[in-house]
Amino acid sequence: MKGYIIHDLAEPDDAPSDDLPPRGWGMVLVSPPFERNYKEWVKRSDAKKMVMDCPGESDVKAMCVWMRRHQPVREQAEYWKVVKGQMDEVGPIPRYIFDERKYDNWVQRCHKTVDEATSSVILQCIGLGRGGSWDLMKVLYWLARVVRVRGKAGGSEFFSNLPVSAHLGNKTLFKSANLMQQVDFNFLISGLTDYLISENFGRCTVFAFLNGSFVSAIERRLRELRPSPQLQSHRCALAVYSRERSTRHHVLPPLEHFSERIDVDHWVLYVTEVENFPLVDGFFFVKTKPMTLVGLRMATAGEHHTTASTVRQFTEYLAAYFNGWEESSRPLSWEMIYVQHADSTPMNDWQRCDVVSSDNVSDDEKQKIAAFWNEKVRQYQVSISSREVPRRV
Description:
Elements: E1 3-8, E2 25-30, H1 35-45, H2 57-67, H3 73-90, H4 94-97, H5 100-115, H6 119-122, H7 140-143, E3 144-150, E4 157-163, H8 166-179, H9 182-198, H10 212-221, E5 223-225, H11 237-240, E6 248-252, E7 268-272, E8 282-286, E9 292-298, E10 306-307, H12 308-321, H13 325-328, E11 333-341, E12 353-354, H14 363-376, E13 377-384
Parallel strand pairs: 1-2, 6-7, 9-11, 10-12, 11-13
Antiparallel strand pairs: 3-4, 5-13, 8-9
């Protein structure tokens, strides 16, 4: 053997020459999972297919250290900060994160892919969370990365398509939530649930509440947080009405793009596109007497206290979104569920509603809101890992 050729097929609809490899040479063909790129060559060459992960963060950091090894430590740190920011945006793809010009072009193309996606294009994202060639899902070329998965049989392996980065993943999920049919979006979430949990995927993790397996795992682990152990315990509505759950979602746009109030619908998962939405990441209503609002908050820290002005801001959003909110909210029962990854510091104590200085809420109203929170809001905490939710590929 004279040596090996490494042939990189970076683009879709690319293919190696029929003359490769020359006699006496071996060849490694590197390609995204576009089968038509390599299917004939693999057959002709009797090649073995292997799955290779993208480099991890520690791998990329080591590359940065090596490339800037002759520079001062401060400059090395600044270079890593730039590369890390670009990796957070487009994923750990060396050909783009180490070249500023290529990065600029690529990140624009990725965002344009999501921004201009039609219903038929975004439907290709149904392959996220599952294996499968990209031949019929070309949109994954800009939005996905391949992750190697070991099979149960000895030595077997396959790959799963996951969002290339949390940033693009969030954007893709919200676009899918707006454009996909409900059954298709639920199918997408069923494949991505363990990823949303394991990666601490921020507010998009609330979409996991559309997955029955996830909700079942949550119900069994709910733990009530009480301001005083003397107070009577209270079962969470999610556990009491375990046979019912959210199977539909509704994405609430920013108020500047919202024209007409909607009616409150029970067991609909409401998620908002508003950045830094106050108090919750999502919520739903349960048909009880009185009606129950269940707020969902993804939490990583061991405490997640709020303020009276934050609660007030949340209720102002609800009044702007829903018909007759002032009337229907009077007898409303409130519950908060804090969902944490199993590796996070567990939240063990009651989460306070503090009274702090605020220009938009009077002192009297702040005291009333804090009293309502402390007396009427039920709180629950649950820690969960992806291992506790059945994985579908």
